[in-house]
Amino acid sequence: MSKQIFSKEKIKELINEVNTSFEIVNINKFSNDITIDLLIENFTHKSKSEARNNITEVLSKNFDSTLNFKINFKPKFVNKEDSNKLNNIKNIIAISSAKGGVGKSTVTANIAVTLSKMGFKVGILDADIYGPSMHIMFDLVGRKPLAVDVDGKSKMKPLESYGVKILSIGFFTSMDQAVIWRGPMATKALDQLIFDSDWKELDFLLIDLPPGTGDIHLSIVQKLSVNGSIVVSTPQIIAMADARKGISMYRQQNINIPVLGLIENMSYFNPPDDKKKKYYIFGKDGVKNLSEDFDIPFIGEVPIIQGLRESGDIGRPGALQEDTELSRVFEDITRKLIINLTERNTNLPPTEIVKIKTMAGCS
Ligand code: ADP
């Protein structure tokens, strides 16, 4: 057989012969090295290795032997069927922070219990795969979700605490076990939490995202129609620098998830023994100014409250309290969030599930 000269079209044709479901993202040639980036659905080691062997074989047969083929795989998500399974969830809200330790999980937990107090059906998906904390904040350490049968399929039943349904990777790891996963493993675990679970009817599913703008974020927007996002930050300059990146990620043309608003956490400290004093430990109004810069609604501010930290540690979100400063702060924030969400749902079409082809712009 006469050998072909290099041609992207021919490579595509040959890869399609091996498997029509492979999606070719990129083909690059540097000298004699040809790099091919593919999306594949079955992202197991075995199927990747089989795919690599089959593709290399067919390419070597057809092209000159001086060419070296390097094949990279990324997981391909099949959206249609998966997304249908979440039709019983009315609103999905992603909560992110760009920087770690700014109180994103604390804010998520307290908004969730406030929504539940208001009578909504609420779930939290703790997608902070590398540092899950919802199992601690909701006093569920050591508990494991049960398997239930749904239409002949085994599903995870979210655990419930204070009226909030919760699934977290924290249910499957021990407290002192570090989760060191590669991107694809983490997204696979997340897939199970999202799709192999029996959420039943929910008015709100809050997704507590890991800090940053990485794989997990992209994986979520590829699979779920997220109504909107909230970005939590302290007013500190270095936290806000990261928050800017987070906002830009949602606003990228190919992601395009409306940012419902910004929440400033740890805005100030009001000492209990002198209520007139306010200490702006992390700076003043930083997030408010950021929201003006980006023309994004400012949802509210949460002061540093010792009771908020303590209640998180003992596993009973502080906003469950009745008629305290803490519960009022979260009632205001939650009300504003609902208003912004309703406005978004009225004025904008549903968010499309994203088909991201490159990681450009995302760290
Ligand atoms: P993140 O999810 O951004 O990593 P966490 O919600 O885990 O952050 O919060 C980090 C720490 O700060 C926790 O110990 C939490 O209890 C505490 N914390 C968060 N917000 C406040 C606040 N407003 N007042 C007091 N402590 C807070």
Write the layout of secondary structure elements.
Blueprint lengths: L7 H11 L4 E8 L2 E8 L4 H18 L5 E8 L3 H6 L4 E8 L7 H14 L4 E5 L7 H4 L8 E5 L2 E5 L1 E3 L2 E5 L14 H13 L6 E7 L6 H9 L4 E6 L3 H15 L7 E11 L16 H9 L3 E7 L1 H9 L10 H23 L16
The protein binds adenosine-5'-diphosphate.
Give your account of this protein's structure:
With 363 residues, the chain is of the alpha/beta class. It folds into two domains: 8-76, 2-Layer Sandwich (Alpha-Beta Plaits); 80-347, Rossmann fold, CATH 3.40.50.300. The chain contains eleven helices and 13 strands. It has an eight-stranded mixed β-sheet with strand order 8-9-5-10-4-11-12-13, sandwiched between helices. Helix 1 crosses helix 2 (45-62). The relative contact order is 0.14. Adenosine-5'-diphosphate is lined by residues 97, 100-106, 133, 265-266, 302, 304-305, 308-309, 312. Residues 97, 100-106, 133, 265-266, 302, 304-305, 308-309, 312 line the site of adenosine-5'-diphosphate.
